Amino acid sequence: MPVPGDAVSLEEQIDRWRSYVRRRQAIHSVDVAELEDHLREQVAVLVDAGLATDEAFLVAVKRMGDLDALSREFAREHSDRLWKQLVVGPSDSEEPRARARTDAIVAFCLAVAAAVVIKVPVAFGIQLDQDAGFYARNLSIFVLPLLTGYFVWKRRLDTSTLRWLAVAIVAAGVFANVYPFSPSGYTEALTALHLPIALWLVVGIAYASDRWGQVGGRMDFIRFSGELFIYYVLIALGGGVFTGFMGMIFQAIGIDLEPILGSWVLLCGAAGAVVIASWLVEAKQSVIENMAPVLTRLFTPLFAVVLVTFLGTLLWTGPGVDIERDVLIAFDLLLVVVLGLLLYSVSARDPRSPPGAFDVVQVVLVVSALLADAVALWAIAARITEFGFSPNRVAALGVNLILLVNLAWSAVLYVRFLRRRGSFSLLERWQTDYLPVYALWAAIVVIAFPLVFGYI
Amino acid sequence: MEINKDLIAASSTPIVLAILAEEDSYGYAILKRVQELSGGRMEWTDGMLYPVLHRLERLGHVEARWEVAESGRRRKYYRITPRGRAQLAEERGQWQAVDATLRGIWQALCLRVPASHSASAIPLPQGA
Fold this sequence. Notes:
By secondary structure, chain A is mainly α.
């Protein structure tokens, strides 16, 4: 008979075995339960035959067979299990399932709220097609507070943080609406463009809650943002098919849905989808492989090749950069893309693994982007007085400098890491520490630019 | 003597179905029964039985239910379905045909070269 001490260690051993088997994707937990019953019976029989429990356990595990081969067999029988299901899968125990359901209901209600809120101005006689400026400025103020609310509810944010977030949102509402913008002016467009960026920091603080102070918390927010973007694009594609289909079949019976589709389905759908996509990212984060890093892997080498070719051609043909008025925006976009590629390869990289070939490609990409941008800046600096300081140009220049500083220091840190003079986590820290800078700059553009440039 | 993997894989369906045709059973007991019937000559890797059972369940040859065993643990019992019985009859016919063929050829071999009978390791299957 097993003594109590043995029994405890058997339970421990079985616990360890169970968690080990559970890691196999093809073997679900009901199967693990079935195998465990088998294991226990085998052990009991062997102990009766005179073996010590630990010996019996070892023999029983051995007889169970090689786990790799076993999970291959399970995978062959249940090939669907290798595809992680996108629909929110049923979890094993009752409690997480109930929590997931509440989560889904709250997200759905907030999405409906976002869809309703975005149509509230209509009650005050503000129409989308007539007051496009109003909608452009306030779009993020309608949607992002609800998204923030979702995370406030989910993370149970403390009231002091909550107060600051509320202040920020109210301030955003005030600055978006008190200035007497000239209709379809530059500063109005800049506000519409920068306010979401500033408010995204509010979402981020709610998302990371008490982990905002840590690199890990902010990095999670970066991952979340990337996945959200991809989910949102996918939902938008689906929405496009949906509305197109709806318009088409109603056209066939002589009803024109165009007005409803544009101002209701599209607008409300776009607002609600932000919350729904966020909820999906949250629900899926442990289930599905993150997409943003996969895309990064795919496009980093391509962008690196293009940029190196561009620089090579530039050197070969002489300094013939044709500086148009909008060239700065093009280079801003280039830096944003490169930063995105850098960010999402940093977010997916194990900081402990040593430098590899992909890291070299990454550095080539960043350095060539910096050089290309430097050429453009040099060319534009020579003629900036000729072009004049319009609000658009100052904003574009500001963004360019912010991105340039980020990428330049990232390049330095990355090269140090490649030469094994620094750790990769320094790069992570730099990227996550830099996040508030974007929001700060966006806030400056929203608050100061209309005043400085006279609301043009 | 080790029976090769293909043979084990091919015979697993009729063996499991036949054992379940005797009575409802569960994984460990099925393996015990296989050992008993084969006199320990059929060595199945324990875990491999379960994918087989799950395949039979998917095909509708057996159905499973969870019960609490006398030990207090939850245990998954399998029961053969009418479809499983039909499948068993079918497999039985096939295996009998294979068996008859082999018996015929073994006998022919024994008659032709009786001298090599004791030296050869081949003609064992009478007992199989």
